[in-house]
Structure formats: C-alpha cells, structure tokens
Amino acid sequence: xxxxxxxxxxxxxxxxxxxxxxxxxxxxxxxxxxxxxxxxxxxxxxxxxxxxxxxxxxxxxxxxxxxxxxxxxxxxxxxxxxxxxxxxxxxxxxxxxxxxxxxxxxxxxxxxxxxxxxxxxxxxxxxxxxxxxxxxxxxxxxxxxxxxxxxxxxxxxxxxxxxxxxxxxxxxxxxxxxxxxxxxxxxxxxxxxxxxxxxxxxxxxxxxxxxxxxxxxxxxxxxxxxxxxxxxxxxxxx
Length: 238
What we know:
By secondary structure, the chain is an alpha+beta fold. It has helices at about 30-40, 45-60, 70-85, 155-165, 185-190, 195-205, 235, and strands spanning about 10-15, 20-25, 90-95, 100-110, 115, 125, 130-135, 165-170, 175, 210-220, 225-230.
C-alpha cells in the first residue's frame, strides 16, 4: 500500500518585468535539501543552479528560468521562500555611521518588491541625428555573476556583459538583431562608441530593476539612527 500524498497550497504572483501571472507553490523538503547543500558548498554556480531548479519546479514548469531576467527570478524565489519557511527573515544590517556594527533585524520578505529607477530605460539612443541606438535585454543568472557589483567588473567582463545584453541595434527604421552577428562584429560596434555612449549603457545596468527595501537601524553603540537600503536577493537570502 502506498503512503498518502500531501496536498500543497498554490499561490499566484505577477512577474515584475511583464505583469504576467505565474502560479507557484512552496518548496518541499527535497528541494530545500538541495538548496541547503548548495549554500553549504559556498559555490556560486551550485547556489545559482539550486535557485533555478527550485523556481522551475515550484512554478510547475510554466516559465523558462534560463531566460528570466535576474530580478524576476529573485522575486519569484523570495515569494516561494516566504511561503515555504516563513515571511520573516532575520538578517544583520550594517550601521553606516561606523561601518562596523551589525544589528539583527526581522524583515518581512513577502512585502519586498522589485523597484524601478525613474531614469531607467532599455532603449539607448547613441546618435540622435542619425537615430542610431540599441535595445538592451535584461541579464539572466547565467549571464552575470550575482556576487559581483556591476561597478566592480573588470573591463573585459564589463564588455562581455554589455555585448551579451544587446538585443537589437537600430538605425532609423532598420533593425539589426544581435543574434545575427558574430562576437567580433559586436565587439567592433562597441569599440566605436563614444565615452558618453558607454556611460549611457552603464546607466542601464546601474539602474536595473532590483529587490529593494529600506529600513531604519539604530547603532547600539553610538545611538545614531540611519536609513539603510537593502538591495538584491543575497541581502535577504537567509
């Protein structure tokens, strides 16, 4: 005789990038074990793969996790986590007034949303007179190292990331799909950009949508109160 099977509750969320409804469930013990083992390994690749596997399984295979923008996948995982092990995450927040004291805080992860900077756009005009520009696509977990700040990337890594995130190049009504061109073609295109063009592209990455939550923390040693912005899944990933 087979053992009984437990029913698992299901929920719905809206993808931040597209407002598409996605059905999801909490992760099960077998999936939590995979995640814990990945965290214990401290290997970024293992953690990323565990995140992708859990999101794929818990969304019933509705979405392609390999093509999801990083912020979409992080948001989905955080919602799954809140329904699986509780909505409250205990994290240590660094006090900015002395930059050395940590204060433990309880954060309701179910209320954390993806925030979009007002200046953010994925359409970047490089030459207004000729109407030449690019349409960017959002990086995925496979295309970026989530443990590295975009501002700290080496030059070659930054160029590779930018090239991999170009979706289209346009000139007036003409559209050139990046997938139709070689790496050398795209590198030559990037090499022809001006310094201002490059800054405009970097702004796309600096203002990319992200999980953001602001808290007020009081340093127990100095009694100074400060507002701290928590950003990115790794901040709440406990």
